[in-house]
């Protein structure tokens, strides 16, 4: 076995603490730069662990990335839920959708470079990441359908999938413009208009 090039002392932790630290470091790394620029060796160094230990917990970079995406999807879903609960009882469906877009924009702005890279990786990401992407999108479609009281028909399904695709596309343009706060109202209005147009006569029911 070759000698270690990194002579910093390893942190002694129990397995759960170590795993959480590696996840925290990896989350920051993937939020800050594209997938291909992140290495397990760099994550190991930042977590003051060996690369072998990172492999032991997560096997591959693709699996670790999938874990991070799962955590991010759960975080976004929880933020959206809390924001919806904070709305008043007389809030309309449009209010709820507008609020969810605002939460998403906050989420993106926190990790703009990594999020943009994730969008550009679609179709080329590790299988673990592709599975997380699929599950997250299906969950978003289901949540939207419940919110608008939409039927489980092809027209509504296509409208909801199309809206989410449109939202990610315009958010990608927003990140390329530097996530300007001044652009947020226009982006949100465009997203709402897209959803209402896609739904057709039923609109947002308000």
Folded structure, characterized:
This protein has helices at residues 15-32, 40-46, 51-58, 61-85, 93-110, 112-120, 127-148, 154-176, 184-199. It is an all-alpha fold. It has nine helices and no strands. The N and C termini lie far apart (67 Å).
In a nutshell, what does this entry contain?
This protein is mainly alpha-helical. The chain has helices at 15-32, 40-46, 51-58, 61-85, 93-110, 112-120, 127-148, 154-176, 184-199. The termini are far apart.
Topology:
Elements: H1 15-32, H2 40-46, H3 51-58, H4 61-85, H5 93-110, H6 112-120, H7 127-148, H8 154-176, H9 184-199
What key attributes describe this structure?
206 residues, mainly alpha, 9 helices, 0% strand, disordered N terminus
Mean pLDDT, all residues? 89
**Structural class determined from secondary elements:** mainly alpha
Helix content: over 70%
- H/E element string? HHHHHHHHH
What is the β-strand count?
Answer: 0
């Amino acid at each position: 076995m070759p000698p270690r090039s990194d002579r910093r002392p390893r942190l002694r932790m129990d397995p759960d603490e170590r795993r959480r630290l590696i996840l925290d470091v990896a989350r920051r790394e993937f939020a800050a730069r594209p997938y291909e620029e992140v290495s397990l060796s760099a994550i190991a160094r930042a977590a003051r662990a060996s690369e072998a230990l990172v492999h032991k917990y997560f096997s591959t970079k693709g699996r670790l990335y999938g874990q991070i995406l799962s955590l991010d999807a759960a975080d976004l879903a929880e933020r959206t839920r809390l924001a919806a609960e904070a709305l008043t009882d007389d809030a309309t469906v449009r209010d709820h959708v507008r609020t969810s877009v605002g939460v998403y924009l906050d989420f993106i702005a926190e990790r703009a470079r990594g999020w943009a890279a994730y969008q550009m990786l679609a179709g080329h990401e590790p299988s673990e990441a592709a599975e997380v992407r699929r599950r997250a999108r299906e969950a978003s479609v289901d949540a939207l359908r419940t919110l608008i009281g939409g039927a489980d028909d092809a027209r509504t399904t296509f409208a909801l999938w199309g809206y989410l695709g449109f939202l990610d596309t315009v958010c990608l343009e927003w990140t390329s413009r530097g996530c300007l706060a001044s652009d947020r109202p226009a982006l949100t209005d465009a997203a709402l208009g897209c959803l209402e147009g896609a739904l057709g006569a039923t609109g947002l029911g308000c």
